[in-house]
Amino acid sequence: MIKLDAEVTEIACPPNQAAQARAISVWVPDTEEHIEFTLKLEDFQSLGISEGDNITIKIEKKFDIDALARDLMNKSK
Question: How far apart are CA 31 and CA 45, in angstroms?
C-alpha cells in the first residue's frame, strides 16, 4: 500500500455535470504533481472537503499473479 499526503488545491464542476459530479485537484508534494479526481456529487458532499484541506491518498494495488505470468509469456512469443 502506498500513502500520499496531498492538499486540495481546486474544486470545480465538470462541464455539463454540475448536478452530478465535482472535479478535485490535489497537489502531492512527494511527487511534485497535481492529481485530478472526479467524484460523484453525493460522495463529494459526504466527504465535506474544501480547498486548502490536507488529505491522505491510499493506493492499494492488488494483482493476479497468474494473469501477470500469462501476459509475460504471451509477450515473449
Answer: 27
